[in-house]
Amino acid sequence: MTRRLRLTTGGESHGPGLTAILEGVPAGLRVDLELLASDLARRQHGHGRGRRMQIEQDTADIRGGVRGGETLGSPVALWIENRDWPNWKRAMAADATQIDPAFAELRRLKSPRPGHADLAGGQKFLRHDLRDILERASARESAARVAAGAFAKMLLRELGLEIRSGVRSLGPLGRDEPVPGWTEVAAVDEGSPLRAIRHDLEPQMVALVDRAQERGDTLGGSVTIIAHGVPIGLGSHVSWSEKLDGRIAQAMLSIPAVKAVEIGSAIAAAAGFGSEAHDAIAYDAARGFHRPTNRAGGLEAGITNGEDIVVTVYKKPIATLREGLPSIDLDTLTAHAAQYERSDVTALPAAGVIGEAMLALVLADAALEKFGGDSLRELLEHFAASTRLAASWPR
């Protein structure tokens, strides 16, 4: 099967800006500029964010694929300006004549940060200045994904889907909490400092971030993302590359600093017996087939089963520490502390918003793959027909 939705992003953290090209959006989708602006703002929110968030006020300029507030069926082109660009032009300009050698040397990264892409990327691409690596590996690129993900959310909303997220744990706080459901995640206060699912834990979380900041340290944790109103039958069991849980996991692991993904209650299930791990099947005339529990997180054998898709991502502490970890100076090949780059103490609230975007992109892709349609009208008609067929099965 050929996927319908494809995202390409371009740009560096301190370059002129970020570009996103989203192919496969059907014609006739009304563009919600408020949702687009809101998600970009939510990505910048959160206690423990660095000074960069005070500089950038992200807005997405639509430069293609939309006319009069509706998508055209052609690629959607988005541009997000980097407001910090004027301060970096002498080091980051594409035109060599605009580079100031002394300033570029001052900005050169030569002591790689453990846990970052610096060293592995430098070795792979044979770059002596590791800024050539970190500029693209930076989480700044995720702003382009969030902008594109907003269009995927708009499309999914037409099919009755909604996606929300919240911080489940920060460091040791909340790590033993059970997997939340839609009610808990939908109740997250978007204006709170950390967008925590457990409101009563948030003051302790804020205090922990403050302690880490005082020490020059960083914190990781987990974020749960839930898609509500998901239809039956997205994804497939017939080939490894079509399994939707695998596609979701790959998308989530592409988020900067995410090192593990859990679908449903997988971790708890792995520690127990099969009799406690699976979801019983029930049927009634009003709901059809359904599960009284959702330990599978809405996915069985790579196919959606009609329950909420529940994904938890585990994010390691950010690799950039004020007091650099032990590293090597590339010029002398002697021991040297890793260089410091402006960074956050934690970016967990933002990770949830990025996770929403990535889940939306995967689900929108899967929906187009199953239902098809070059226009929104055609897609909705196919979706309605498929829904009727699913409701009448197995008769």
Number of strands: 16
- What proportion strand? 15-25%
Outline type = globular
CATH-assigned fold name:
Chorismate synthase, AroC fold
The low-confidence parts are: none
Helix fraction by DSSP (H/I, runs of at least 4) = 25-40%
The N- and C-terminal alpha carbons lie at a distance of 28 Å
Question: Please, how many domains?
Answer: 1
SSE string, helices as H and strands as E = EEHHEEEEHHHHHEHHEHEHEEEEEEEHH
Q: Name the structural class.
A: alpha+beta
How is the largest sheet built, in terms of strand order? 1-2-6-3
Tally of helical segments: 13
Radius of gyration, CA atoms, in whole angstroms:
22 Å
Question: CATH superfamily name?
Answer: Chorismate synthase AroC
Mean pLDDT: 94
CATH class: Alpha Beta
Task: Provide keyphrases for this structure.
Chorismate synthase, AroC fold; four-stranded antiparallel sheet; alpha+beta
Plain-language structure description:
The structure is a single chain. The radius of gyration is 22 Å and the shape is globular. Strands 1-2-6-3 form a four-stranded antiparallel beta sheet, covered by helices on one side. Helix 10 packs antiparallel against helix 12. The longest helix has 24 residues. The mean pLDDT is 94. The protein starts with 5 loop residues before the first strand and ends with a helix. With 395 residues, the protein is of the alpha+beta class. It has one domain: Chorismate synthase, AroC fold. It contains 13 helices and 16 strands.
